[in-house]
Amino acid sequence: MSTAPLIPSDLKRGREVVLTLEAFADRGKSLARVAGPDGGRGYVVFVPGAVPGDRVRARVIKRKKGFAEARLLEVLEGSDLRTEPRCEYFDACGGCKWQHVQYPAQLAMKGEAAVSALTRAGLDLGAADVRPPMGAADHDGSGGVYFYRNKMEFSFSAMRWLTDWEIASGEAHDKDFALGLHVPGRFDKVLDLKACYLQSEWSARLVNGVRAFAKRHHWAPLHPREHSGYLKILGLRTPAHTDDKMVNLVTSHYDEERMAAFADFLKADFPEVTTLVNTINSGVAQTAYGEAVHTIFGPGLVRDRIGPHTFEIASNAFFQTNTVAAEVLYAVAKDFASLQPTDVVYDLYCGAGTISLFVADAVEKVVGVELVEEAVENARASAEANGVDNCTFVAGDMLELFKPELIDEHGRPDVLIVDPPRAGMHPKVVGQIAHLRPERIVYVSCNPQTQARDLAMLQEAAAYTIEAVQPVDMFPHTHHVESVVGLRLA
Ligand code: SAH
User: Fold this and answer.
1) Beta 464-472 vs 482-489: how paired, if at all?
2) What is the CA angle 91-178-289, rounded to 5?
3) Is the pLDDT of residue 219 over 70?
């Protein structure tokens, strides 16, 4: 390989290059720049798995007009931002892309991503209190960067993916059975995880126990190509604030005898399990949702708390997967909303009503709007169970519902809290918000790109000032970041 500085024409597909990484890029990648002729416009090369500050050997695998992508072959000099990943499956697993980056650097990157999305969309943050990102809350002594999920879904597969070190070990591996997480981008390949640091040590033990049980009984895992097999997914819910523990075994059909045997096994070996449900999914998709849910023992739900409220969570119900971080996020949203006792608040895209309940004690009334009927039913039940009587929940599509009739019925909002899915809001919904002109808006987002787009659209139509921005990390080691933006009508 030549030691002369790279020029863009070196970036041919298949060519090996040496690169120094400059910055974090989207989705677990870092980027290097290769200067154009005469120092002109640089050419960007993305390298998944590399870290800013690394000097790496990499192979160009994609070359497009404005950028290239290269596969990391060797780290020649490691960045100071690196750390030893805790998990032995890190290289192969799709779960934690940034485990090899020190947490403070991950956090800084996420804060930067959330704020730069807003500025790149042309939003004026001059008057805004832009706060440093809030990191994982230390709730269990691990610093909160591990074991933060209250829900996991492990996949069964008859096509096991072996890691490099599993192959190198020379041991004979059972390649026809895996229980773990998917290799990124491979619907058919699953790692047989003996450890995972996302949920709890207990969860990993349970996964290992269930695998051994299933193999002993010759229960067939899903064959992702032939669509045969009995076992599909092992879902676990382990709430942060109660000792409830749910096992949800997702299978292709209902087999009473097998479920009785499985229940006996859990009661003997994992007596901590408080409820077992069996979801039947006879379709081809490997999802935890199915056409029927049988409760085998226990109440068929778990309870967790956010703030002072307790929520009952069924196997298929939506609930924030990082309970402790959700409390942090909601506290920021509540703070940004500057709530007054006379306020009418609309909680749009309210899911199971967790934000609605969180803010309800500070205001006159909350109206929650949510697409999924079951989530609205959960929200109503939770409000009632927690003695909260000033929340109303409406089921339906925001695009259809969020119209003058809804406002006529429930009153004009002083505050809107919006927390849409990754795709953001429909332009017509943004238009309707601009038309309504509530005094305060709090936009909670899991995707700063769409948040920025929506806010730019809103500001074009109505005079809102961005008062505060708070990025929050709910998912350490992933590229995800939440961002809360507070706005006020000028
Ligand atoms: N605020 C809640 C949920 C946020 S997730 C919480 O903190 O838990 C986004 C929610 O928007 C999901 O519950 C999803 O079902 C809902 N949603 C998605 N599209 C919608 C639409 N068009 N109209 C109403 N709700 C929608």
Assistant:
1) antiparallel
2) 100
3) yes
Distance from C-alpha of 444 to C-alpha of 484, rounded to nearest angstrom = 4
Nearest atom (ligand 1) to Cα of 330: 7
Q: Provide the b/e sequence for 407-429 (b: ≥16 CB within 10 Å).
A: beebeebbbbbbbbeeebbeeeb
Helix (H) or strand (E) holding 267: helix 256-269
Ligand 1 atom at minimal distance to the Cα of residue 401: 23
Q: In angstroms, how far is CA 434 from the centroid of its own chain?
A: 29
371 Cβ closer than 6 Å to some ligand 1 atom: yes
Tokens at 213, concatenated = 């049980």
**Scanning the structure block, which residue is given the tokens 């749910």?**
246
Residue type, 71: R
Q: Is the CB of 395 under 6 A from ligand 1?
A: no
Q: Is 318 in the pocket of ligand 1 (CB under 6 A)?
A: yes
Three-state SS for 283? coil
Q: Ligand 1, atom 26: nearest CA belongs to which residue?
A: 371
User: CB of 354 closer than 6 A to ligand 1?
Assistant: yes
Burial level of 178, CB count in 10 A (0-12/13-18/19+)? buried
Among candidate residues 87, 93, 196, 446, the one labeled active-site is: 446
Can you tell me whether residue 20 is helix, strand or coil?
A: strand
Beta carbon of 333 within 6 Å of any ligand 1 atom = no
pLDDT of 436 strictly over 90: yes
Least confident of 18-32, 333-347, 383-397, 476-490: 18-32
Residue 100 pLDDT exceeds 60: yes
| Residue ID of nearest Cα to ligand 1 atom 1 | 350
446 is catalytic: yes
Sheet holding 23-24, edge to edge: 16-20, 55-63, 67-77, 43-48, 29-34, 23-24
Each residue of 169-215: pLDDT tens digit? 988 888 999 999 999 888 888 999 999 999 999 999 999 999 999 99
Confidence of residue 139 (pLDDT cuts 50, 70, 90): very low
